[in-house]
Task: inverse folding
């Protein structure tokens, strides 16, 4: 069973807007896991959930990058590159779901890995640059 992190103050980047988006992304991830486990006969409901997740993830990435740029984060380029890779992966999943050929296990594995990596490995080291 994949592990989606539970929100706690230890995951906070000390920015209320980013923290709120992280909380919602965690919840959307959990909802996606439940949906995939229900094994709908087509990928259409998963596609809709992926679209909602991807929309928030893109807005979240934009906000993060803007704050990191405004605060002079020295690793901004690396952070942007990580975001672009994740966004491209989301685009591939949505294209596969639109074609009703989604590898659901790969989606679960990758989404689980993304949440854990994004929160602990990508954001926490630069949280000092995420203030308004």
Result:
């Amino acid at each position: 069973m994949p592990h989606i992190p539970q929100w706690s103050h230890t995951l906070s980047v000390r920015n209320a807007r980013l923290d709120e988006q992280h909380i919602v992304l965690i919840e959307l991830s959990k909802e996606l896991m439940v949906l995939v486990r229900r094994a709908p006969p087509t990928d259409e409901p998963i596609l809709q959930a992926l679209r909602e997740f991807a929309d928030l993830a893109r807005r979240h990435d934009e906000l993060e990058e803007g704050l990191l740029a405004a605060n002079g984060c020295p690793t901004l380029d690396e952070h942007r590159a990580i975001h672009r890779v994740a966004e491209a992966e989301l685009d591939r999943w949505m294209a596969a779901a639109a074609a009703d050929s989604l590898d659901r296990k790969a989606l679960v594995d990758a989404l689980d890995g993304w949440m854990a990596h994004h929160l602990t490995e990508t954001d926490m080291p630069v949280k000092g640059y995420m203030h308004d």
